[in-house]
Design a protein that fits this description.
- This protein is α+β, with helices and mostly antiparallel strands.
- It has a domain at 44-149: Cation efflux protein, cytoplasmic domain (Alpha-Beta Plaits).
- The chain contains 6 helices and 4 strands, in the order αααβαββαβα.
- The protein has helices spanning 7-11, 26-35, 44-56, 67-78, 113-132, 154-161, and strands spanning 61-64, 90-94, 98-108, 135-147.
- Strand 2 and strand 3 (98-108) form a beta hairpin.
- It is elongated.
């Protein structure tokens, strides 16, 4: 088959100013030319953080993650030098061109959950596609709990429920 390029021919670039073997229009060869200059790899954590920030922008979300995830996160936040994770409660699978996202939510009491889920899904898709260029193929949302107005947060329980006092370091 004479039209099939060899692997060596795929890596060769045309000399400057010479026409390419594509259709000849400058619009068709421009994306290919920029792709030949390198690739961009996105870590899973990048997509998870973007999705987490986008989800938190929607009113009616109390927290991200399951109860166990939030408990461990609250403990990790108290460790000196520990950072809170914006991607807590979010799992992403990232390919070269597409991503899929799973998110666990705790919603405020009184919120219409199907409407909230639609808003969260649309905001995550918009933010991730705009910032990463990846196509979001799905956003799966699991509502794990409803936060009642008189219920304390896990972080508040940890602070008020501690019986032993730590000595202050000087």
């Amino acid at each position: 088959m004479p039209d099939t390029p060899t692997p060596a021919a795929l890596h060769k670039t045309a000399p400057a100013g010479s026409p390419t073997s594509s259709s000849g229009s400058s619009g068709a060869s421009a994306p290919k030319a920029s792709a030949e200059r390198g690739r961009t790899a996105l870590a899973v954590g990048v997509v998870e953080k973007i999705a987490g920030m986008a989800a938190r922008e929607i009113p009616g979300i109390h927290a991200l993650g399951s109860g166990l995830t939030r408990t461990f996160g609250a403990m990790r936040d108290k460790v000196p030098g520990g950072k809170s994770s914006m991607g807590r409660g979010i799992k992403a699978e990232v390919g070269e061109k597409q991503t899929a996202i799973d998110i666990a939510l705790v919603v405020e009491y009184g919120v219409v959950i199907p409407e909230l889920a639609t808003q969260v899904r649309e905001n995550i898709i918009s933010a991730v596609e705009r910032m990463t260029g990846l196509e979001v193929v799905e956003v799966n949302i699991a509502v794990n709990d409803v936060h009642l107005p008189d219920e304390p947060d896990i972080e508040e329980e940890d602070e008020s429920g501690s019986t032993g006092q730590r000595p202050k370091l000087q």
